[in-house]
Structure formats: C-alpha cells, structure tokens
C-alpha cells in the first residue's frame, strides 16, 4: 500500500488565512502526519459518525480534517479543511 497526499482548494485557501504561528504549526503537523500518522502529538482519530474523515490536532485550538479513501492499492489522504475547532465543527 502506498500513501498518497493531496489537498482541496478550500484547505489551501484556509491554511493561508491562519496566523503566522498557526501556519508554522500546521505545516509541522502535516509533515509529521506524512511521516508517522500515529505520532501521539497529532492525536489522530476518526471523526465519530463519519466513514472516511479523521482529525489531527495542530495546537490547542486548530484542527485539520483529513479524508482517507483508497484507490486500488493506494491510500489517498486528502487534507480537507483546517481551522479552529468551532470552524471545522460548526454548532448544529
């Protein structure tokens, strides 16, 4: 199995709108996820009630949502959305 990575246009736009420190932390979290998704600092977990969406923690307030799918023998990890907890999990 090969792990592949990509991002949505929305994600690319959102990451640029973060403050400078959060951009640096998000970039580090993405690199770490690409190397070792099980790294404890990421707190990688499946989002309850979804089939293919997972969360990694950038810092106390910022989260990255990743859609994990498969294509043949490849695992596709799509960086889907980034923002504060309230932005990525809006109140119902």
Structure description:
Helix content is 32%, strand content 37%. With 92 residues, the protein is of the alpha+beta class. It has a five-stranded mixed sheet. The longest helix is centred in the first third of the chain and has 16 residues. The termini are far apart. The model has no long low-confidence stretch (mean pLDDT 94).
Keywords:
alpha+beta, globular, 3 helices, 92 residues, five-stranded mixed β-sheet
Main sheet: strands, sense, barrel: 5 strands, mixed
DSSP strand content? 35-45%
- Which term fits the overall shape? globular
Order of H and E elements: EHHEEEEH
Please provide the count of β strands. Answer: 5
Strand order of the largest sheet: 1-5-4-3-2
Number of helices: 3
Secondary structural class: alpha+beta
What is the CA-based Rg, rounded? 13 Å
Low-confidence stretches: none
Query: What distance lies between the first and last C-alpha atoms, to the nearest angstrom?
Result: 37 Å
Mean pLDDT: 94
- What proportion of the residues is helical, as a percent range? 25-40%
């Amino acid at each position: 199995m090969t792990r592949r990575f990509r991002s949505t246009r929305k994600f690319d736009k959102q990451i640029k709108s973060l403050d400078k420190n959060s951009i640096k932390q998000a970039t580090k979290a993405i690199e770490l996820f690409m190397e070792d998704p099980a790294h404890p600092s990421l707190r990688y977990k499946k989002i309850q009630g979804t089939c293919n969406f997972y969360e990694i923690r950038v810092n106390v307030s910022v989260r990255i949502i990743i859609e994990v799918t498969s294509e043949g023998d490849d695992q596709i990890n799509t960086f889907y959305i980034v923002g504060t907890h309230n932005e990525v999990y809006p109140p119902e």
